Structures are given as structure tokens and as C-alpha cells.
Amino acid sequence: xxxxxxxxxxxxxxxxxxxxxxxxxxxxxxxxxxxxxxxxxxxxxxxxxxxxxxxxxxxxxxxxxxxxxxxxxxxxxxxxxxxxxxxxxxxxxxxxxxxxxxxxxxxxxxxxxxxxxxxxxxxxxxxxxxxxxxxxxxxxxxxxxxxxxxxxxxxxxxxxxxxxxxxxxxxxxxxxxxxxxxxxxxxxxxxxxxxxxxxxxxxxxxxxxxxxxxxxxxxxxxxxxxxxxxxxxxxxxxxxxxxxxxxxxxxxxxxxxxxxxxxxxxxxxxxxxxxxxxxxxxxxxxxxxxxxxxxxxxxxxxxxxxxxxxxxxxxxxxxxxxxxxxxxxxxxxxxxxxxxxxxxxxxxxxxxxxx
Length: 355
Fold this sequence. Notes:
about 350 residues; alpha/beta; Rossmann fold; L-2-Hydroxyisocaproate Dehydrogenase, Chain A, domain 2; 2 domains; six-stranded parallel β-sheet; 13 helices
């Protein structure tokens, strides 16, 4: 390589480093379950500039259980090899306190899945799943409440997401931090089905609301969703399809993916997590909303304190608001009642963990 060309390359590298040090913002992001399938699809997009902006350097803390934390070194190698300009410090740890200290965002991806064998018992019942994950999210929540930044945002991806978030939030006991459970995956699935049925572009589907729990009781609202500005239900004009095909298809999509590929949703779940983060940090476009579960303030008659899927928007000041005044027909009210009752029963099942 000619000396002049070499010197110019060195100068570019030097100036790039100076730019990063002087002008780029910096953010600390923690991810649990860092060695899992979802994280493998998620992590590059967190540090590529796509999620937090090209002017933001992302310091990434990957958190795993002690048995597999060494595998994160390979993941870190790959992240370095991506060569993203926005890549900051990359750390792996099995210590939740080290992982969440001074974090701006925490993505709680790791959880104990249904079907795992613990002490010779296969965990199938949702009540057992709640109890086992409850202990994990109690400890994580306490560490987050104490050590993460006062305005930290926490997104729970690991299932059962709503009640895991409830447990974590109560353990954190920090009202200035904000907890979310992910329902964007359900919203994306619902948009895709409505668009396919209407022979429309998926980008034309707006106002997709997932009411309630991230479970088969969720209600993916086709009446308030719009396709090119008109009610999706009216555009499709087939109530039998909505009630007998669309709702079960969206509600059971996760199971269908597992049956088809032999593993749970990973790429689409990672994409939904990215969608949620971007929806929270950027103002919502006029006439649209985004879906996530947040703590209920009593809106729409939902009991206060439940982590419940609502229609949300981020205002120009960065505040997350539950959108008010949405009309719910009798069919919707019936479905919302079912998912509310499920979440109440889950809260009762973990009452000893939330005080």
C-alpha cells in the first residue's frame, strides 16, 4: 500500500475516533438472555445506529446465567466484526447488578420457557411458570430499581411478559423508571393478517391495538385498526373470518411457529423489541398508535396496577400516554374482559412476590 494512502486511512480512523469521543451521544443498554436466539437477532440492530440513531454510541451489557456466560465472548467477537461506528463498550456478565448499573435501557429477554425440566418436573402449567420466573424477575427488578438510571426504560420480552413485568416493577419500587411488556410482536402479526386478507400493503395498516395480555387471550382489535384510513373490519367486511379465523390465528401464531420450525419465534420477536424501543423514543405519528403493555391507571375500566396492553403514543416531549376515547363495541368488551380476568388471576398467583 502506498505510504500516502496508508496515512490518509490512518487519518480517517483518527478523525472518526475523535468524532465519536467529542460529538456522539452515549447510551447504556443491558440485555438479559444475551446468548439466546432472540438476542442473536436483536443485538446487532441495537448497536448499528438503527435503533438509537447514528449519532449515538451504544455501550452494551450482555447478561447471562453463569453456566453459559462464556458463550457471550463469541457473540461479542461477532458484534465487533460487524464494524458499526456506533459500537461502544461491550461487556458480558452473569452479575445482574453489574449489568444494569447506570443503564438507560434494559431489555429483559431471558426467562424460563414452558416445557423445561426442573428437578425432574416438566414445567407446563402457567402457574408454575409464573412462580419460577417470579423469582428471577424479583431479583432483576430489585437491581434495576436500585442501580439503573432514574429514568430507565425496561422492556420485558421473556414470557409470561405482562406478569414478569408486574413482578419486576414492584420489586424495583422506583416510580421514575418505566416498565413495558412487549405486545408489538402480536401487533405485527395482526397487521400482517389484516393486510393479507384485504390484499393491502402492510404499511397501510395503522392503529393496531393489542388489548390485554401477551397470551392467547389477547385481543388484537380489528375494528379500531385502519387500512388506508378506514376501519379494517369494514374494509374486510367478513365478521365470520374475523371471529373464527383472524383472532385464533393471531392468538395462536406463536404456537404455530414452534410447530413449524421446532423453536419459538426469534427473528420476529427481536424485530418487535426493536420496534417497541423506537416507538417509545420517537414521537408517534399523528393518527397512529403503538402497542405495548404498561401499568394501568384505570383507563377503560382496567384495574389499576395491572400490566395491560393499551393503545399508546409518545408525545413531542417524550412522554408515553395511553390514548383515550377509543370506542369499544360489545364484542371487544367481551374479549377484553377475558384477558383482564386472566391477568387478574396471574396477579393473584404471584401475590406473595408483589406485596
